[in-house]
Amino acid sequence: MPHRDDFGRAINYLRVSVTDRCNLRCVYCMPAEGIEKRPHSDILRYEELALIIRAAAGLGICKVRLTGGEPLARLGLVDFVRLIAAIPGIDDLSMTTNGTLLAHHAAALTGAGLHRVNISLDTLRADRFQYITRRGRLDDVWAGIDAARAAGLSPIKLNMVVIRGVNDDEVTDFARRTQTDGWHVRYIEWMPVGIGLDWSGNGVVSIPEIRARIEADCGPLEPVHWLPGNGPARYYRLPGAQGTLGFIGALSNHFCASCNRLRLTADGHLRPCLMNAREIDLSTPLRAGADLETIQALLATAIQSKPEGHRLGEQPSPRDRMMSQIGG
Length: 328
Ligand code: SAM
Known about the structure:
Layout: E1 3-4, E2 10-11, E3 13-17, H1 46-57, E4 63-67, H2 77-85, E5 92-97, H3 102-112, E6 116-120, H4 126-133, H5 138-151, E7 156-162, H6 171-180, E8 184-189, H7 207-218, E9 222-223, E10 234-237, E11 245-248, E12 261-264, E13 269-271, E14 280-281, H8 283-287, H9 292-304, H10 318-326
Parallel strand pairs: 3-4, 3-12, 4-5, 5-6, 6-7, 7-8, 8-11
Antiparallel strand pairs: 1-2, 9-10, 10-11, 12-13, 13-14
Helix pairs in contact: 1-9, 2-3, 3-5, 6-7
């Protein structure tokens, strides 16, 4: 049974960042030179992360999503997946990835117990992909998607961050793929904040605008009520489509009342709420020798004290909030 917080919400979902490093430098996410790297010693070892997840599972956490940085940029991820998949109580194990390294690992990840992946894909055009990511090759992502499908990772959801003047002319191209290829596409409102390029605020294409464009070009959207791993996106279907469309409006999508998640950073800090700057340091007690029960007690306290909602003045950046929704 999931642990309930003080507001009666059942907390069953943990997002685990396994690294702060990434092999891409997307223009809207990172500066060209990358971000300051944390020393390796700050990053929790896989065994340390696994102990925290085991403790969380004992409190009713049953869904785990691996993210980063780029999770596949960390060596040994397949073995880590095997470790997590074997934890009693974890019945939904997923990953958010840019897909560029997935072709090499999809089969092994499935074999190790990964259930599904969300792949970040902002464009269907090779030259544009190279511009947006500063160093990636779109063909690697296609190979990753093919490998994920062949390996049985399902459903595969494709996350598109829509930015005016950069890739917004592809919104309906992605939507049509839900009809022709059965894709599950999630449109993400770009957050003009954080450490990426400053697009001067004009880059944001709101979810209502994205929806209106799709409906004008492809026909009416019908609500879909169920898709495995349903998160904060609202899901729809175009006429005759096997695939679905989801919409994540990071600024307007308030889901505090039904929030079921916690986030663990790669350096071992737990965030009960992404809209609140409070973090619980699990790394220090862990490295001082805390056992599973002690970590579990810390997690239970953190869950108990999960804020009812965000409060102005205490908020982390809107980017953090968006990341909590899309898995970054
Ligand atoms: N490397 C993995 C990946 O690419 O999916 C996981 C981490 S990445 C930070 C998670 C997601 O955040 C990606 O879909 C990325 O496009 C998105 N993202 C990063 N910065 C963003 C921003 N300013 N606005 C909206 N989405 C953003």
